[in-house]
Amino acid sequence: MQVEVRHKKFGGAQILDWIEMSVGAGEIVALTGPSGIGKTTLLRIIAGLDRDFEGAVTDPGRIAMVFQSPTLMPWRSAADNLRLTTGAERASIDRLLDEVGLEGKAKFFPGQLSLGQQRRLALARALAANPATLLMDEPFISLDEETAARMRRLTMKVLEGRRIATLIVTHDLVEAATLADRVVMLGGRPAAIETIVPITTPRARRDAVTEAAALRALTPGGAGNAHGNLT
Ligand SMILES: Nc1ncnc2c1ncn2[C@@H]1O[C@H](COP(=O)(O)OP(=O)(O)OP(=O)(O)O)[C@@H](O)[C@H]1O
């Protein structure tokens, strides 16, 4: 999937300047930058939810999006939330619920699930759509650190082996350095790509990324910057 935004305005205000990036099949890219810079705006453009921009999104294939809030149908069971939105078969729904650690919860309504569980259901729903491109907007925000770390591990595990181009918006550097193969940082006004940092440490070894290691790897000029080496 390739994205080229020449510019994006809201009214008279230009939000995004020239942005060119691509996400390959099986790759995880984190999009980060200060609050209000335009991360969600870029994600909405890629998702096709905002077509009022100059540029193009090429070869996204089927797109699934995981929003900040899980946006589930509260009056439908967990299984129905997957089935009704994607048409997935019972067997694959059960498999997906198992994969995201929601075995035995197929009949539960979203209100009977914790926020972390609702987020896992939203992830399962996105995967049930069998997407070529997966867009995640701050998917682990407002979870306690331990739950967020578990969610990151789970996300890496379910994406392993699936050839999905994944773009994750996050302001959390630990999250970016843990999950991503590449971190794209937006900066400036209007926003453009400030830095792209490849994370070369294998995913399997990123289990215990610390704030300090993430900062080293992702701070421009930081010790780990050249190689994105987290250890
Ligand atoms: N529908 C809209 N109409 C006008 N301005 C908007 C609209 N949506 C977003 N903006 C403006 O565009 C800018 C970028 O917003 P956006 O939500 O993309 O930032 P963000 O980087 O995702 O922020 P955060 O990290 O806080 O979620 C902000 O100044 C915001 O006020």
UniProtKB/TrEMBL annotation:
Pfam families: ABC_tran (PF00005). GO terms for molecular function: ATP binding; ATP hydrolysis activity. Keywords: ATP-binding, Nucleotide-binding, Transport. SMART domains: AAA. InterPro entries: AAA+_ATPase, ABC_transporter-like_ATP-bd, ABC_transporter-like_CS, ABC_transporter_ATP-bind, P-loop_NTPase. PROSITE patterns: ABC_TRANSPORTER_1, ABC_TRANSPORTER_2. Transmembrane segments: none annotated. Residues 1-213 form the ABC transporter domain. Signal peptide: none annotated. Belongs to the ABC transporter superfamily. This is ABC transporter ATP-binding protein. It comes from Hwanghaeella grinnelliae.
